[in-house]
Amino acid sequence: MAPLATLPGVGPALARRLTEAVGGDRVLDLLFHLPERYASRIPVSGPAEAPADAEVILRAEVVSLRGARSKSGRPYVEVRAESGGKRLLIRYINGRVEWLQKLLPPGTERLFAGKVKAEGGVHSMMNPLSATGPEGLPLLEPVWPLVKDLRLSQVAKAMAAALALVPDLPEWHDAALLRREGWPSFPAALRAVQAPQEPPSPPTRTRLAYDEALAEQLALALVRRRVRHRPGRPLTGDGHLRDQALAAFGHPLTPAQAHALAEIDTDLAAPARMLRLLQGDVGSGKTLVAVLAMLRAVESGVQAALMAPTELLARQHLRVVARLCVPAGVRVGLLAGSVKGAQRRRVLAGLAEGSVKVVVGTHALFQEGVQFRDLGLAVVDEQHRFGVAQRLMLAEKGDSADMLVMTATPIPRTLLLTQWGEMAVSRLHGKPAGRQPITTTLHGLRQLPEVVAGIARALERGARVYWVCPHVAESESMDIAAAETRFAELTARFGPIVGLAHGRLDPEVREAAIRDFAAGRTRILVATTVIEVGVDVPEATVMVVEHADAFGLAQLHQLRGRVGRGAAASYCMLLYDEGLGQASRERLLILRDTEDGFAIADADFRLRGSGEALGTRQSGAPVFRLGLEEAEAQEGLIIMANRDAALLLEKDPALAGERGRAARLLLRLFGKAEAMGTLRAG
């Protein structure tokens, strides 16, 4: 659609301000910039009729203006007016007399909108809006989010011009659905929300939210269809390597692991390429499942690679991989930044000629000099910490390589349909045998001395302790300052057994601090959320989180999962601000009462909404511009749209019918050009 600057009355400066406010430079971005509320005004004939604390609109004649100062010295302009036979005082704080005299010359009548206050028989209005006629002050006025130097009147004028450009559009929804839900057409819904004559009805808002959800789900369904039809090659195997690995492991698979592995095996044996998400709660045994999948690939005569976001995590995976693969006679290699010289050359040569069957590494795996003899399976851990391009670069190292993605981040069902919608999903519920439950307790910050005393007693028993410092979303530097302050205080109390890890430290220094903690050279690790994923210290049994109310529930669950990884009883102590509101307290009680990460993620979605459901906004997570504020209602629309998109493509795979052609327009409206490319490519 056309740029904002093409609208009448929108020059370059206004276009820049509008672009900043609406998040894009197109007319369509303006049309999708929904009001945050509506100002509803009651017409009254005079100030005496105005209800208390209600927005009213009345006509008044300006009598005089004068500059004045309040008792505190603050300047204002006082306008004396008459309305309905009553005197009305209008005060404009920080107003200029000269400007207001031009706007409100004595002897003229104007409409004023605002709240009337009655004190001692005198009626007054503070900073009201004014206009010469009713078109300038409608009884119902949208209030859009603004930026500096952008006025509502400017947005309203630009919006009116944009709405005038909206043509009649073909309907992409089934007629029966429209009748059942009482939905207007898409253009009518836009006009009802952006230029209302009366408060928009719930069906009107729901219609727009559903349009966006359907565009999202239809785009994902198109991508998913293409992914599932990509040519691959069957990988079967006879299980002999797996049997040897499991014998070395010494424990049987849990029912959840066996079920997930069966789903992966079915995908591996299929002629299409696999793209599957293995979603396992903290400590659910994902790595074991991934290694057994890689051994199935090796049994089939191809190589397998596991990519992790950090070298620390890659080395932790390497220990598990080697423990399982070496007894089975499978050669394993490591490729990471610290692997250099002759060692690196040996690994590269082994990959190229095929003697290294399984490799573990970081992004170094997809660098130009890395060549595989025949890569058949790529496993990516914590995908959200890699870009899509990086993930695909690893897959392209092989000929039709299958892909398995792992994440320990609990993902709400709704986001599984959106952010990971193109993947088949396997979920691991429960924990492997031997893992102990974690006792979670809540403590007000005033109990900090008692918490520190409890830590001292735990240290006497040989415990190792994580101490995570406040999460300040607006400022990483504030996080780090808090961590450094707490590090100094705990060092003063406990001496050199306290370590420090945060995001601004040199990576080698940070990882050395984590290694010292893992080796027991330090016993308390003060950290920011850099330890959230990939730090595996089975001896750590105590987790303290300061200002836990500032974190997302799923993120707290991830942090808690750093303990409880061994056989000893573990504890998580959540410190919260004494002024905690009821809703925030309810969130922490959910964490206290359950260790089920999936239940926590779904609860967090409903309490916080989709944008923050994972604690911080995830890369690639959907941001619904037209979505409903109620997370549960939005979730219902997404699930409904998921089914609708599947049915539409089942009936009309090429989107060539009447509704299909309209759906193509829907995809373009919501910027799903990539999905359209997928459709064209078949």
Give start-end ranges of low-pLDDT stretches: 610-621
CATH-defined architecture of the largest domain: 3-Layer(aba) Sandwich
- Which superfamily, in CATH terms, is the homologous superfamily of the largest domain? P-loop containing nucleotide triphosphate hydrolases
How many helices in DSSP terms?
23
| Strand coverage percent | 15-25%
Give the beta-strand count.
Answer: 22
Residues in helix, %:
40-55%
Task: Summarize the helices and strands and which ones pair or pack.
Layout: H1 12-22, H2 27-31, E1 37-40, E2 42-43, E3 55-69, E4 75-83, E5 86-93, H3 97-103, E6 109-119, E7 122-126, E8 129-131, E9 140-143, H4 152-164, H5 175-181, H6 186-194, H7 202-228, H8 240-249, H9 255-269, E10 275-280, H10 286-299, E11 303-307, H11 311-325, E12 332-335, H12 341-353, E13 358-361, E14 375-381, H13 388-395, E15 402-407, H14 413-418, E16 424-428, E17 438-444, H15 448-460, E18 464-468, H16 476-494, E19 498-501, H17 507-519, E20 524-527, E21 540-545, H18 553-560, E22 570-576, H19 582-593, H20 597-608, H21 631-651, H22 658-669, H23 673-681
Parallel strand pairs: 2-3, 5-7, 10-15, 10-16, 11-13, 11-14, 12-13, 14-15, 17-22, 18-20, 18-21, 19-20, 21-22
Antiparallel strand pairs: 1-9, 3-4, 3-6, 4-5, 6-7, 6-8
